[in-house]
Amino acid sequence: MTFESPVLNAQALRALAERHTPKNCQCLLGPCVGWESLGAGRWPEGDMHKLGTLRATLDADGAPLAEPSYAEFHPEGTRYESPDAPIAPLFFPYNRCDVFACGQCDRVLLRYTEFGGYYVDQRVRVLSPERLVDAPLPDD
What we know:
7% of the residues lie in helices and 20% in strands. The protein is mostly beta strands.
Protein backbone atom coordinates (compact mmCIF):
# COMPACT_ATOMS: atom_id res chain seq x y z
CA MET A 1 0.00 0.00 0.00
CA THR A 2 1.37 3.44 -0.92
CA PHE A 3 0.77 6.61 1.03
CA GLU A 4 -0.71 9.43 -1.05
CA SER A 5 0.65 12.76 0.14
CA PRO A 6 -2.06 15.35 0.64
CA VAL A 7 -1.88 18.27 -1.75
CA LEU A 8 -1.47 21.38 0.36
CA ASN A 9 -2.57 24.91 -0.49
CA ALA A 10 -1.35 28.15 1.07
CA GLN A 11 -3.83 27.95 3.96
CA ALA A 12 -2.81 24.36 4.82
CA LEU A 13 0.85 25.33 4.57
CA ARG A 14 0.28 28.25 6.95
CA ALA A 15 -1.50 25.92 9.39
CA LEU A 16 1.50 23.55 9.30
CA ALA A 17 3.85 26.44 9.96
CA GLU A 18 1.74 27.47 12.96
CA ARG A 19 1.63 23.91 14.37
CA HIS A 20 5.38 23.39 14.17
CA THR A 21 7.57 25.33 16.59
CA PRO A 22 11.15 25.25 15.29
CA LYS A 23 14.00 24.87 17.71
CA ASN A 24 17.63 25.70 17.03
CA CYS A 25 18.62 22.99 14.55
CA GLN A 26 22.13 21.59 14.26
CA CYS A 27 21.42 19.24 11.34
CA LEU A 28 23.39 19.16 8.09
CA LEU A 29 20.86 21.39 6.29
CA GLY A 30 21.87 24.62 7.99
CA PRO A 31 19.55 27.63 7.91
CA CYS A 32 18.42 27.20 4.24
CA VAL A 33 16.42 30.45 4.22
CA GLY A 34 16.83 30.67 0.43
CA TRP A 35 16.86 27.74 -1.98
CA GLU A 36 20.01 25.78 -1.20
CA SER A 37 21.52 22.81 -2.96
CA LEU A 38 21.48 19.70 -0.84
CA GLY A 39 24.58 18.13 -2.29
CA ALA A 40 25.52 14.57 -1.47
CA GLY A 41 24.57 13.33 1.97
CA ARG A 42 23.02 16.53 3.37
CA TRP A 43 19.39 15.35 3.51
CA PRO A 44 18.90 13.70 6.93
CA GLU A 45 16.52 11.05 5.58
CA GLY A 46 15.82 9.38 8.92
CA ASP A 47 14.83 12.67 10.57
CA MET A 48 12.49 13.91 7.83
CA HIS A 49 8.75 13.29 7.96
CA LYS A 50 6.76 14.00 4.81
CA LEU A 51 3.74 16.18 5.55
CA GLY A 52 2.38 16.63 2.04
CA THR A 53 3.06 18.09 -1.35
CA LEU A 54 2.43 21.33 -3.23
CA ARG A 55 2.35 19.43 -6.55
CA ALA A 56 -1.22 19.89 -7.69
CA THR A 57 -2.54 17.35 -10.19
CA LEU A 58 -5.79 19.19 -10.92
CA ASP A 59 -6.45 22.77 -11.97
CA ALA A 60 -8.86 25.13 -10.15
CA ASP A 61 -11.80 23.65 -12.13
CA GLY A 62 -10.87 20.04 -11.27
CA ALA A 63 -9.48 19.21 -14.71
CA PRO A 64 -6.19 17.25 -14.95
CA LEU A 65 -3.21 19.58 -14.88
CA ALA A 66 -0.79 18.83 -17.72
CA GLU A 67 2.12 20.78 -16.25
CA PRO A 68 2.43 23.14 -13.28
CA SER A 69 3.22 26.75 -14.14
CA TYR A 70 6.81 27.92 -14.57
CA ALA A 71 5.78 31.46 -13.65
CA GLU A 72 7.65 32.88 -10.66
CA PHE A 73 6.24 35.37 -8.14
CA HIS A 74 8.55 38.29 -7.31
CA PRO A 75 6.48 41.50 -6.96
CA GLU A 76 9.22 43.19 -4.90
CA GLY A 77 11.97 42.42 -7.42
CA THR A 78 13.44 39.47 -5.52
CA ARG A 79 14.95 36.51 -7.32
CA TYR A 80 14.48 32.76 -7.05
CA GLU A 81 17.42 32.27 -4.66
CA SER A 82 16.75 35.35 -2.50
CA PRO A 83 16.20 34.62 1.21
CA ASP A 84 13.47 37.29 1.22
CA ALA A 85 11.68 35.93 -1.87
CA PRO A 86 8.00 35.20 -1.27
CA ILE A 87 6.83 31.61 -0.89
CA ALA A 88 3.87 31.42 -3.29
CA PRO A 89 2.65 27.80 -3.51
CA LEU A 90 1.05 28.07 -6.97
CA PHE A 91 4.25 29.44 -8.51
CA PHE A 92 7.55 27.85 -9.54
CA PRO A 93 9.41 26.19 -7.87
CA TYR A 94 6.99 25.80 -4.96
CA ASN A 95 4.41 24.07 -7.16
CA ARG A 96 6.91 21.23 -7.55
CA CYS A 97 7.75 20.84 -3.84
CA ASP A 98 7.19 18.23 -1.22
CA VAL A 99 6.79 19.43 2.37
CA PHE A 100 8.67 17.86 5.27
CA ALA A 101 9.13 18.37 9.01
CA CYS A 102 12.52 17.84 10.60
CA GLY A 103 12.33 15.39 13.49
CA GLN A 104 15.25 17.12 15.24
CA CYS A 105 14.16 20.74 15.17
CA ASP A 106 10.51 20.66 13.95
CA ARG A 107 11.21 23.07 11.09
CA VAL A 108 8.93 22.77 8.05
CA LEU A 109 11.02 22.38 4.90
CA LEU A 110 10.21 22.62 1.21
CA ARG A 111 12.13 20.33 -1.14
CA TYR A 112 12.15 20.05 -4.92
CA THR A 113 14.34 18.67 -7.67
CA GLU A 114 15.80 21.12 -10.16
CA PHE A 115 16.48 19.65 -13.57
CA GLY A 116 19.00 21.43 -15.77
CA GLY A 117 20.38 20.52 -19.16
CA TYR A 118 23.06 18.25 -17.73
CA TYR A 119 22.33 18.02 -14.02
CA VAL A 120 19.80 17.16 -11.35
CA ASP A 121 19.97 19.15 -8.13
CA GLN A 122 17.96 18.59 -4.95
CA ARG A 123 17.11 21.92 -3.29
CA VAL A 124 15.65 22.81 0.08
CA ARG A 125 14.20 25.93 1.70
CA VAL A 126 12.79 26.39 5.19
CA LEU A 127 9.17 27.53 5.34
CA SER A 128 9.19 31.06 6.72
CA PRO A 129 5.54 31.90 7.51
CA GLU A 130 6.22 35.62 7.12
CA ARG A 131 7.20 34.95 3.47
CA LEU A 132 4.14 32.82 2.66
CA VAL A 133 1.82 34.46 0.10
CA ASP A 134 -1.48 33.10 -1.23
CA ALA A 135 -1.15 34.64 -4.70
CA PRO A 136 -3.29 33.47 -7.63
CA LEU A 137 -1.70 32.53 -10.94
CA PRO A 138 -2.16 35.16 -13.65
CA ASP A 139 -4.73 34.47 -16.36
CA ASP A 140 -3.01 33.41 -19.55
